Amino acid sequence: MRKKLKRFAENHSRDNIIQPGKPLYENVRGSWNSDYFKEENPIVVELACGDGEYTVGLAQAEPSCNYIGIDIKGDRLYQGSTLAMEYDLTNVGFLRTQIHLLENFFDENEISEIWLTFPDPRPRDRDEKRRLTHTRFLNMYKKLVRKDGWFKFKTDNTALFDYTLEVLQNDFPVKNLEYTHDLYQTELVSDHYGIKTKYERIWSEKGEKIKYLKFQF
């Protein structure tokens, strides 16, 4: 607990974390490039970014884009923030908020690309609406991502992946849908720049195949 409290205190002083109590938290909607990054680049968002290692990896791989990792856990964002600082990255930041509040922080068409990597699968039927690929979330993402933008989803959980495919094919039609149940055996593998999270490495070592899909709204 003491370690978490120390991290929370440090988060308040870090420029690459936007959270309640900081000026930009209330005013960043529609002005990420002008007020935070100070550079007009495509904005790429990672939802439920956890420790931020994927967000940081993307920022390293594509320095011509601005990256925002989003999570509600402050101690996790501390990890990503620290990693970004160690690599001296200026094209990455972190936002502490709940995913269902995204419209408070992004304007319509402000996002170029969304990544969703290894989210909580919410396996219980009563939690279906909390899955981050449920139609209520997809409708929100659609408003925020520009028309030529992409949504990219990576998971080890077969049930969640199949659920998502069913939603996209039956309940929420999209365009240019591509998918695989075994990412590392397809040409789609180049999409993720070789970035692997801690959890991906754990499940891969256990023999779990990594599922991946991408589409445009």
CATH class: Alpha Beta
Number of strands: 8
Major β-sheet strand ordering: 1-4-3-2-5-6-8-7
Cα-atom radius of gyration:
17 Å
CATH fold assignment = Rossmann fold
Q: What share of the residues does DSSP label as strand, in percent?
A: 15-25%
Query: What coarse outline follows from CA principal-axis ratios?
Result: globular
Count of helices? Answer: 8
Helix and strand content put the structural class at alpha/beta
Q: Largest sheet at a glance?
A: 8 strands, mixed
Gross CATH architecture: 3-Layer(aba) Sandwich
Report the span from N to C terminus. Answer: 42 Å
The proportion of residues forming helix, as a percent range, comes to 25-40%
Q: What is the count of structural domains? A: 1
Mind sketching the topology for me?
Elements: H1 2-13, E1 17-18, H2 23-27, H3 32-37, E2 43-47, H4 53-61, E3 66-71, H5 74-86, E4 92-96, E5 111-117, H6 135-144, E6 145-155, H7 158-171, E7 175-180, H8 198-205, E8 211-216
Parallel strand pairs: 1-4, 2-3, 2-5, 3-4, 5-6
Antiparallel strand pairs: 6-8, 7-8
Helix pairs in contact: 1-5
Task: Spell out the key features of this protein.
217 residues, alpha/beta, Rossmann fold, eight-stranded mixed sheet, globular
Give a quick summary of the entry.
This protein is an alpha/beta fold. Helices cover about 35% and strands about 20% of the residues. It has one domain: Rossmann fold, CATH 3.40.50.
Describe this structure in words.
With about 220 residues, the protein is α/β, with parallel strands linked by helices. The protein has helices spanning about 1-15, 25, 30-35, 55-60, 75-85, 135-145, 160-170, 200-205; strands spanning about 15-20, 45, 65-70, 90-95, 110-115, 145-155, 175-180, 210-215. It is about 35% helix and about 20% strand. The chain is globular. Helix 5 (about 75-85) links the parallel strand 3 and strand 4. It has one domain (about 1-20, about 40-215): Vaccinia Virus protein VP39 (Rossmann fold). The mean pLDDT is about 95. It contains eight helices and eight strands.
